Amino acid sequence: MFPEQLDxxxxxxxxxxxxxxxxxxxxxxxxxxxxxxxxxxxxDSDRYCLFYCNENKEVETDSLWDSVGECMSMADSFYGGKIxxxxxxx
Length: 90
What we know:
single chain; mainly beta; 6-stranded antiparallel sheet; 1 helix; globular
């Protein structure tokens, strides 16, 4: 089951586990493997976060967008195709 919140933000959409790339240190060593994506929203913000999560569904990094659609479009363009998003039940 996917968490209802990540870093205090409500999860709106998430992906199944997949290979979404790596985050690397400047030395070239791998810092984290990205296995999940999630679109989230903080209650005190009108913007949306695209979270890049590790195997344990912990946020490794994020980007900030004006809409859910922008989050989805950015992820699609970055990962070279249509991503299957799952709407959160919470």
